[in-house]
User: What shape does this take?
Amino acid sequence: MKNLLSNIANPQDLRKLNQEQLPQLAKELREFIIDIVSTKEGHLGASLGVVELTIALHYLFDTPNDLLVWDVGHQAYGHKILTGRKDVFHTNRQFGGIAGFPSRKESKFDAFGVGHSSTSISAALGMAIASNLKGETEKHHIAVIGDASIAGGMAFEALNHAGVSKANLLIILNDNAIGIDPAVGALKEYLTRVKSDKKLAAQNNIIKALNFNYSGPIDGHNLPKLLSELERLKSVKGPKFLHIITTKGKGLQKAEEDQITYHAPGKFDKISGERLKKEANLFTKYQDVFGKTIVELAEKNDKIVAITPAMLTGSSLNLMLKRFPKRTFDVGIAEQHAVTLAAGMATQGVVPFCNIYSTFLQRAYDQVIHDVALQNLPVIFCLDRAGLVGEDGATHHGVFDIAYLRCIPNLIIFAPRNEIELRNILYTAQLGLKHPIAIRYPRGYGHLKEWQQPFCKIEIGKGTCLKEGNKIAILSVGTIEKNVSEAILLSEEKLNKKGCISHFDMRFIKPLDENLLHSIFQKHETIITVEDGVIVGGFGSAIIEFAAKHHYTNTIKTIGIPDKFIEHGATNSLLYELGLDAKSLANLFQLYL
Assistant: This one.
């Protein structure tokens, strides 16, 4: 049979096919995605689930003139392949290659840049209103959103607005009952009932009550049905809502059977679907250090609860859920709610560990300030994926947290340099702090084999000296300490100047250890700060502010993430590119010796 996909470079080529050929194209598109992702890695299950929908949308609508917005973008691989990026798709998520999420600077077919969830309806509605203002009343605006994402607060806000607008907006709910982990909440239960109760779908319908023209639910893998319904909806004016049912991982049995793992499975055999075994890592992921430690602490402290916004597996709170299901709360994609829920619990003497990825806490900034810090409530924020996160790129790098949290009164900020420090600060935090605390730690593996040591209380606001020298002082926070320590050894050995460099792990970005800082500034000519967060407003800025306040005139050099968005790529490649790898740091340190 003739290969159809090989002759399709863009949606115009797609529209030349007969409808009867589209199922064959769907088969080929699935095979192409599986073939590439099996060796290059990436997000698999979500894109396999919307192959038919992707084809139908580009076949019937005049993209990119009609505007198509994907929520999050995990499911946009087919979209990328059909819109001019097939030949470079093998570079997906790789350093210098195409991004793993839709990006406006990458393609005119990517109407809106996405990476965080629940934004598609607001964005598409904004586009639709703009079209009305310009008199472009025939233009279509489509938002594709999943059943987990639509439960996010921002999506509800957009639905509330869209329902009273005159906007030519089509919302497609891709309902597969799972995000990364299984979808949760009352809305998910309602959607489950709608699937099996035609009367409920037709009459007592939440979406209809919000003034949408609702249709569905229909089989999202039935191309003729999809095409027919989308063709009908093109002629319907105003806000419309199409509910489709799909299977995440469709077309690869292993991905259908284990949808959590095959959301992003790593490398796998493209025929059997079996994941390829990686070389055993002797170390432990930071998320697992957290997950195992909180269970250990919860065994002895019955006031401890855990909260996550839809990241049970990613944060390793699935361990807590298994052991203490009544004390573990997955609130869905709702970071604002997660933070204020934790605040409410804290008012009643509960000890809430609120685990949110660094980049996702940005979505709950007001709640951190207004609901937690202003009331000085002892919520324990555990910021997973702090620093550079690698292939997910600019939307997911956790590099802003130090800068955006440091300005908040009452908030303690701690960055452990290793697994033992993380374990000990978790222990310390649940002993009865009088303030909220943010604990930031990275994605990936640590470097200590024996990290499960007896707990040791950490004195709040105290840094530590890792190495004494007499000329320059390196101040670091967090796990970048490992690169700094290696760089110091390289520098001193190359120049034969052992004992010239001091190294301090400040640990606390707030409050700073001012006694230690006075000693450092009085003994060293040059101070160099190193962090894996943004330089602007970050840890280095705090040291400069300290020096200015106390009239120190030492030379201060700040090293960290520059004032630009960092693209995707392997973390080691990004560290090298930014001069944060050990060799680059060593070369810089040598300039001051």
User: Anything to note?
Assistant: The mean pLDDT is 93. The chain has three domains: 5-263, 286-440, 464-590. The first strand starts at residue 67 and ends at 70. Residues 286-440 form a domain with the Rossmann fold fold (CATH 3.40.50.970).
